[in-house]
């Protein structure tokens, strides 16, 4: 049998436990809400914005943004899967076995209602030994369309014909494979690369 005193004590303890639990839940909710505003690596495969690299990844930070359009080049396409992968700052897909079938830096996005995608990564380097320009591989999958493969390359790359020099007109073509890149005030390379479904 419990005495009145011990019952009261139990009730007080339970109330205290509830308060602590509520406080903890609230804190977790706050953290979750704060994180959901950020670009989370864990979002890969379900978000239109992802991070491919950890903060410790060597290399120059780069953000690539773009929109996937229908064949007309004007109608944005939501719910398109955009898988990207590339080499690291030394030109390796994966050190030890530098095969593009097993890349380390990779990620999948799903375009949002405006057809947009965005990934945060580092600027890739050409393969070790050179010969090929630095590039990002794209695999684009959309319902009712054949899988599309394309690449992003960078203006000024020494392994591109004419060092990838672009005219003003070419710079404006956001669908082109070779794209210009500019450093923002935070020292991050910004690249725009739109995609057109066939
Ligand atoms: Fe490659």
Could you characterize what this model shows?
- This protein has 198 residues and is α/β, with parallel strands linked by helices.
- It folds into 2 domains: 1-37; 41-196, Aromatic compound dioxygenase (Protocatechuate 3,4-Dioxygenase, subunit A).
- It is built from 2 helices and 11 strands; from the N terminus they run αβββββββαββββ.
- The chain has helices spanning 4-37, 168-172; strands at 49-51, 61-69, 81-86, 105-110, 116-122, 135-141, 148-154, 178-179, 181-183, 189-192, 195-196.
- Strands 1, 2, 5, 9, 10 and 11 form a 6-stranded mixed beta sheet that branches.
- The chain starts with a helix and ends with a strand.
- The protein binds fe (ii) ion.
- Fe (ii) ion binds next to β6.
List the helices and strands and how they pair.
Layout: H1 4-37, E1 49-51, E2 61-69, E3 81-86, E4 105-110, E5 116-122, E6 135-141, E7 148-154, H2 168-172, E8 178-179, E9 181-183, E10 189-192, E11 195-196
Parallel strand pairs: 1-5, 2-10, 2-11, 7-8
Antiparallel strand pairs: 2-5, 3-4, 3-6, 6-7, 9-10
The structure holds fe (ii) ion.
Fe (ii) ion binds next to strand 6.
